[in-house]
């Protein structure tokens, strides 16, 4: 695999700037100074993204690569780089820092310095996770991120913060212990920790089977997939606003990123073998998350359960192994980060006014807080995937991917989409027009809140109306990611089945391992040149076509 | 075999002997002198520098029984560093009366001296003598806690069990001598240690090793640990919990050259390692006294270190050596915080940590780093050490042991994290006695140790290279 070296070490700069800022922060005094300083660091960090705009979307390779010896005796390297799969997540992680600072401007009044240290450490760890190309480096960021997140919940959280933080820590740590064993197994097998090198190796099915299990448990807990989701509502409800935003926008994505970065390329056969199980769990997550969200009275809890459902779309899209599905999954990761992050910010803003997160205490805001409800409405629409918002693009792509593989699986997901509309509209209805109104002297959005909501709102609309650029960036890497699957399928297809779409779709998921034998899993029209010139209308058409089992 | 005594090979030991001589003069010079021990930590720091300078010495003295090589010098450096930290820890807070201060530190130094001798011993009787020099001083130290009855009990337990194990080791030594006809490790390494060839020798080796495993506190020779830690004063426990382990590890890695994977002894040790981790962690879960908890955590760590010993490869030995150094630092950091907080020398429970965050954010952060290092979470020294150990064990086919080890991390996290939770999320109870004022110098020293732990976790290459060279000397 060729790699594009970085001229200016932009990824290192993104990781080390927050760490440097932590050191400076130790010596600063005064809450206002600390907030202003962290905010400035956040903006400098965003300015540092400038070189990343030189990302070449035509390449599937890792770009901005930095590679240095670290522990030579064990072949460990300081090895960073981004490709289409990770670059959007890096951008999202960096974007969130100033938003989190702004959202905590008034909410956090005690231990301000330590709070901002935790935020900076989180940013560094998040960028590190998505940029690391050495397995151990990845694992270090992956685990190191737990500590500031634990403190964010445990120190600045709600009344049940001790229970929630402990549950969060124990769950995620227990999940990743076997992941470490899997990493070591890979190292002993191949003698390297370098992820691009590991991708070049072939592994026996037996090895893949256990390695997949070891990794998948860690990722499934992080996502979280049903039935490993129980830590999420507790953590979300108790975490402070900034903590919830980081949890929803970045932390959950680490799990799905892990599936994309490690499970699919390193253990392709095992991924195919386990795909029916993963698809089943994803559909269960979508439906379960939706039903439970429908019955919630706590706004944060409702959004937390909706996350379980939305992340189910991501894992579903990944494990159908089609270009559309994986693209949808990746876009859903970004979109869910934006939308749910924004919703948590809005709940935080509301909490500053009403000091309650219960729906019943926040009724009838429509007349008095029109600007607030405008933004809330926009993010609500995006959350259940209304056309014209970013959520629609990703969910549609995932559905296309699923329907092109199995109509029944797709049919099972449709109620999940409806449920999302139901619980989000119920929430919106009560907040906007619920009577009697709970508003008593609350002010509408202030300028600080406008500042952190407008960028997210713009992203919602931009990615909803013009997803082309984002899709072009991620496409080559995904096509390359799915190449091993494609090769398998193409060979089988040309040998066995001249017209695969005539085959009955339902038995594709029935027998275990049959995905590998099934042709036509990949869509062949995904040429990297410019596959995404379609308009929204055309996109809908594609969905309809896919639903009828025809090829777009 | 070199008969001539080459004094230049003995420099770190000479320096420590000089310190001991000064302390001895203080003990006999009268009460006035005995209390003045403030110079000692700084002298110990110089001792660490001397040990660092003599890292590259090589040669044998005392008719080949005393070998100065990369392995021994690495451990002498580790012991000197550990001794310096223990002195800094103990000098301001020692719980012994003023007129006994010099005696206390004389015993402490003698124990460290014995450990230094131990790290160079390559002959079974020399090993035995060095071990006894180290142990006897420790027997005298454990009960030194004012007129505390629990300390006396701990002292008696330690000496009784220690004596039994010593007798066992002597008995094993006689078996080895009877069947293999030599006590030199270099010659013993060339002989067969399989059950089929010489069962008596294997039994003898097992018994001799038992003495080391007792020091290391490996299951089932761990029962003394919680009681002794709890009974001994905080400063003594800090020493007993860390430095003797180094001595045990150095002898074990020297003996482990005999242990090829697949031998009965090796498999037996691997099973003991797994049991030690599990029993130690499960018992630590229910402790309330911090020192008892750390005692059981020692048992678990003994099991982890054995991962490297049983793998029997240069990498495995290097990993065990590296981990024992990391263990020394992280445990001493943890004890540093405990000793600073316990202003009257009593034992601390989890509740004494409540609200530490408000009293001293620096101390709370030091404790958190030490706790996360003991769990083995990145980016700390504990993680790197564990990673190297797991790597080497997996490579030698101990997959089951690695899986047990990583699952144990999930158990261990609870009780270590509990310290952090108490420090950060709980407020002091109503009516709790006034929290001690912590000195800025003490907090700063803790901060330096925490930074060292993080540094060793992020850039372990330098120290691991030393450990690797040390491990390599075992396999000429």
Structure characteristics:
heterodimer; A: 552 residues; mainly alpha; 23 helices; globular; B: 476 residues; two-stranded antiparallel ribbon; 2 strands; 72% helix
Question: Your description of this structure?
Answer:
The complex is a heterodimer of chains A (552) and B (476). Chain A has 552 residues and is mainly alpha-helical. Chain A is 70% helix and 4% strand. Chain A has a three-stranded mixed β-sheet. Residues 497-552 of chain A have low confidence and may be disordered. Chain B has 476 residues and is mainly alpha-helical. In chain B, strand 1 and strand 2 form a beta hairpin. In chain B, helix 5 packs antiparallel against helix 6 (124-141), helix 14 runs antiparallel to helix 19 (399-425) and helix 15 (314-341) runs antiparallel to helix 17. In chain B, strands 1-2 form a two-stranded antiparallel ribbon.
Arithmetic mean of pLDDT of chain A: 82
Helix content of chain A: 55-70%
Mean pLDDT of chain B: 86
Could you name the ranges of chain B where pLDDT drops below 50 across 5 or more consecutive residues? none
Q: Please report the number of helical segments of chain A.
A: 23
> What is the straight-line distance between the termini of chain A?
32 Å
Helix and strand layout, with pairings?
The complex is a heterodimer of chains A (about 550) and B (about 475).
Chain A (H helix, E strand, L loop, with lengths): L2 E3 L4 H17 L4 H17 L14 E10 L4 E7 L1 H20 L8 H20 L3 H10 L1 H11 L4 H30 L4 H6 L4 H18 L8 H8 L2 H26 L1 H27 L4 H20 L4 H32 L15 H14 L6 H16 L1 H27 L13 H19 L2 H14 L1 H14 L10 H4 L3 H4 L18 H12 L5
Parallel strand pairs in A: 1-2
Antiparallel strand pairs in A: 2-3
Chain B lengths: L10 H18 L2 H4 L4 H15 L5 E3 L4 E3 L1 H21 L10 H20 L3 H18 L7 H32 L4 H4 L10 H18 L7 H8 L2 H7 L2 H13 L8 H22 L4 H22 L2 H28 L14 H4 L1 H15 L5 H15 L3 H27 L14 H19 L2 H12 L4
Antiparallel strand pairs in B: 1-2
Helix pairs in contact in B: 1-3, 1-5, 3-4, 4-5, 4-11, 4-12, 4-15, 4-21, 5-6, 5-12, 6-7, 7-9, 7-10, 9-12, 10-14, 11-15, 12-15, 13-14, 13-19, 14-15, 14-18, 14-19, 15-17, 15-18, 15-20, 15-21, 17-19, 17-20, 18-19, 18-20
């Amino acid at each position: 695999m060729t790699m594009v070296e970085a001229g200016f070490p932009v990824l290192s700069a993104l990781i080390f700037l927050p760490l440097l800022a932590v050191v400076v922060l130790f010596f600063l005094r005064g809450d206002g100074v600390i907030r202003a300083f962290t905010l400035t660091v956040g903006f400098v960090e965003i300015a540092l993204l400038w070189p990343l705009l030189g990302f070449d979307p035509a390449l599937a390779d890792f770009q901005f690569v930095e590679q240095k010896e670290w522990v030579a005796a064990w072949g460990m390297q300081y090895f960073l780089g981004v490709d289409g799969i990770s670059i959007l997540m890096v951008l999202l992680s960096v974007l969130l820092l100033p938003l989190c600072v702004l959202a905590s401007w008034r909410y956090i009044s005690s231990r301000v310095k330590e709070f901002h240290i935790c935020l900076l450490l989180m940013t560094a760890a998040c960028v590190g996770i998505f940029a690391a190309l050495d397995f151990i480096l990845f694992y270090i960021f992956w685990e190191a991120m737990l500590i500031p997140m634990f403190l964010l919940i445990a120190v600045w959280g709600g009344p049940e913060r001790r229970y929630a933080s402990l549950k969060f820590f124990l769950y995620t740590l227990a999940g990743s212990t076997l992941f470490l064993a899997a990493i070591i197994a890979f190292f002993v097998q191949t003698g390297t920790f370098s992820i691009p090198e590991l991708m070049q190796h072939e592994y026996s099915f037996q090895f893949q089977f256990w390695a997949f299990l070891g990794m998948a448990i860690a990722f499934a807990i992080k996502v979280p997939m049903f039935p490993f989701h129980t830590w999420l509502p507790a953590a979300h409800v108790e975490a402070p606003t900034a903590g919830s935003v980081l949890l929803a926008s970045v932390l959950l994505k680490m799990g799905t990123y892990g599936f994309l970065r490690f499970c699919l390329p390193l253990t392709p056969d095992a991924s195919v073998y386990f795909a029916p199980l993963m698809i089943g769990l994803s559909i269960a997550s979508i439906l379960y998350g939706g039903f439970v969200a429908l019955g919630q009275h706590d706004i944060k809890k409702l959004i937390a359960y909706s996350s379980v459902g939305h992340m189910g779309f991501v894992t579903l899209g990944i494990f159908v192994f089609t270009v559309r599905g994986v693209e949808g999954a990746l876009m859903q990761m970004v979109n869910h980060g934006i939308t749910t992050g924004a919703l948590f910010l809005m709940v935080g803003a509301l909490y500053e006014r009403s000091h309650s997160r219960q729906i019943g205490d926040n009724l009838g805001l429509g007349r008095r807080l029109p600007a607030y409800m405008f933004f809330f409405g926009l993010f609500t629409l995006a959350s259940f995937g209304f056309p014209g918002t970013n959520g629609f693009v990703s969910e549609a792509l995932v559905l296309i991917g699923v329907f092109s593989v199995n109509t029944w699986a797709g049919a099972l997901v449709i109620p999940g989409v409806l449920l999302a509309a139901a619980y989000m509209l119920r929430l919106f209805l009560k907040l906007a027009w619920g009577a009697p109104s709970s508003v008593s002297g609350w002010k509408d959005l202030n300028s600080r809140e406008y500042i952190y909501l407008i960028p997210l709102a713009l992203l919602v609309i931009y990615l909803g109306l013009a997803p082309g650029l984002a899709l072009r960036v991620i496409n080559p890497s995904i096509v390359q990611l799915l190449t091993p699957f494609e090769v398998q399928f193409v060979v089988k297809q040309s040998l066995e089945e001249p017209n695969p779409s005539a085959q009955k779709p339902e038995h594709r998921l029935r027998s275990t391992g049959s995905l590998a034998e099934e042709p036509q899993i990949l869509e062949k029209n995904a040429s990297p040149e410019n596959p995404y010139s379609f308009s929204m209308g055309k996109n809908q058409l594609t969905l309809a076509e896919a639903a009828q089992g025809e090829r777009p | 075999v070199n008969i001539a005594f080459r004094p230049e090979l003995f420099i770190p030991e000479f320096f420590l002997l000089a310190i001991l001589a000064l302390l001895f003069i203080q003990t006999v010079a009268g009460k006035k002198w005995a209390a003045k021990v403030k110079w000692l930590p700084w002298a110990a720091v110089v001792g660490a520098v001397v040990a660092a300078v003599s890292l590259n010495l090589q040669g044998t003295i005392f008719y080949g029984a005393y070998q100065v090589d990369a392995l021994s010098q690495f451990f002498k450096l580790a012991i000197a560093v550990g001794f310096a930290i223990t002195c800094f820890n103990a000098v301001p807070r020692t719980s012994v009366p003023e007129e006994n201060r010099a005696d206390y530190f004389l015993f402490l130094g003698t124990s460290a001296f014995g450990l230094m001798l131990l790290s160079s011993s390559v002959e079974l009787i020399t090993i035995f003598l060095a071990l006894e020099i180290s142990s006897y001083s420790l027997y005298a130290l454990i009960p030194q806690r004012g007129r505390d009855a629990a300390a006396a009990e701990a002292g008696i337990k330690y000496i009784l069990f220690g004596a039994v194990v010593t007798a066992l080791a002597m008995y094993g030594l006689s078996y080895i001598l009877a069947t293999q006809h030599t006590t030199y490790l270099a010659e013993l390494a060339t002989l067969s240690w399989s059950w089929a060839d010489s069962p008596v020798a294997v039994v003898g080796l097992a018994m001799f090793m038992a003495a080391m495993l007792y020091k290391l506190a490996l299951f089932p020779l761990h029962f003394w640990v919680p009681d002794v830690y709890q009974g001994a004063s905080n400063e003594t426990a800090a020493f007993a919990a860390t430095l003797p382990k180094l001595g045990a590890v150095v002898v074990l890695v020297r003996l482990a050259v005999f242990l090829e994977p697949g031998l009965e002894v090796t498999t037996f040790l691997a099973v003991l390692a797994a049991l030690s981790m599990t029993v130690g962690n499960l018992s630590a879960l229910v402790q309330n006294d911090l020192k008892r908890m750390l005692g059981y955590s020692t048992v678990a760590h003994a099991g982890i270190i054995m991962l490297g010993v049983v793998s029997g490869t240069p990498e495995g030995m290097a990993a065990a050596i590296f981990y024992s150094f990391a263990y020394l630092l992280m445990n001493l950091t943890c004890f540093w915080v405990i000793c600073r907080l316990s202003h009257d020398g009593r034992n601390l429970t989890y509740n004494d940590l409540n609200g530490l965050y408000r009293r001293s954010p620096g101390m709370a952060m030091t404790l958190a780093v030490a706790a996360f290092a003991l769990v083995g979470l990145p980016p700390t020294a504990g993680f790197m050490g564990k990673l190297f150990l797991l790597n080497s064990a997996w490579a030698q086919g101990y997959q089951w042991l690695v899986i047990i080890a990583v699952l144990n991390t999930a158990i261990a996290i609870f009780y270590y994290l509990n310290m952090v939770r108490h420090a950060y999320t709980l407020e002091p109870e109503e009516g709790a006695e006034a929290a001690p004022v912590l000195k800025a110098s003490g907090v700063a020293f803790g901060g330096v140790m925490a930074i060292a732990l993080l540094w060793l976790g992020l850039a372990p290459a330098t120290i691991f290279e030393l450990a690797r060279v040390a491990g390599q000397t075992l396999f000429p």
